[in-house]
Amino acid sequence: MELKPVLVHALGRSGTTFLMRLLASHPSIVAHERYPLEFPPFRSLAFPSDTEALHILEAKRWRFDSDEELLYRPLAEQRYPTETGIQRIYAKIAEEQGKSSPRYFAEKCLPDADIPGAMKRFPDLHVITLLRDPRDIFVSARAFNEKRGVKAFAEKFAETDEDVVLYNRQRYVALLRNYAGSPNRTIVKYEDLITESGEVLRRLFGWLDIDASAETSRHALTRARQLEDGRHITSQSMAASVGRWRTEMPEPVLELHRRHFGDILTDLGYPSA
After folding, report:
1. Domains of the chain, earliest start first
2. Element (H, E) at 169
3. pLDDT, tens digit only, all 273 positions of the chain
4. Which of 53, 90, 113, 248 could form a disulfide with 105 if both were Cys (CB 3.0 to 4.6 A apart)?
């Protein structure tokens, strides 16, 4: 069973958890439904000297047990895990999920991931670039940090609001640049994923050449919503998460986005303030 990789490529707070759950709900796609690996196999592939990938894997050690030699040891020695090791991990998850003939495994990755490098090892790599209005990303990340009492996402690296906006722009540019260099790629807008979920899913499944029937899409949506535990949501509802910047973003921060994101907002067809 040789699985092809699907990579969900996005900034944080762009709906990656929801999209991963949707993908995981398809019988032809393997992904962990509640706690996606969120990139360690690919992360170690893209950043072999980044020990954070090893730490993430060790924190989730219970998932791999018998595959320790295949994955942990190469990471500990700062070598790439083998393709065979990666395939075995997902074969194990597929077995646990009762998926007898999957065709893909899905993962998240960071905006600046080495996608060209990943494609050298996985020529059949499919990249889904998930975009969200950067103003909503800012508002959502701020609300998440306040809800959890943490400094995560851009606030982990920036002090002022302008620093956060500039950091987000840098990441957004990296995201778009990586998309441009990926031959098997497609774009999904968060706003469409929320407001036109069924249509977006049918398009994605059709793009992957797997069952794209309305019934399969409905099942994926139902399953993904059942898995929602409220940990990631910072708005009253998913529908309310679209365009929340209009009521939640202070004018000074909105002006920063006009200044630093104006060109990107225009190019991607997002409305101006």
Report:
1. 4-267 (3.40.50.300)
2. helix 161-180
3. 689 999 898 999 999 989 999 999 999 999 875 544 444 555 555 444 555 555 555 555 444 455 555 655 665 555 556 677 778 778 888 988 899 999 999 988 778 777 777 787 788 889 999 999 999 999 999 998 888 788 878 888 898 999 999 999 999 999 998 877 677 999 999 999 999 999 999 999 999 999 999 999 999 999 988 877 666 678 878 888 999 999 999 999 999 999 999 999 999 999 986
4. 90
Which residue type does 11 have? Answer: L
Beta-carbon contacts of 4 under 8 Å, excluding residues fewer than 6 positions away, are 103, 104, 105, 122, 124, 125, 126
Model pTM? 0.86
In whole angstroms, give the CA distance from residue 4 to residue 126: 8
Contact predicate 244/140, CB 8 Å: yes
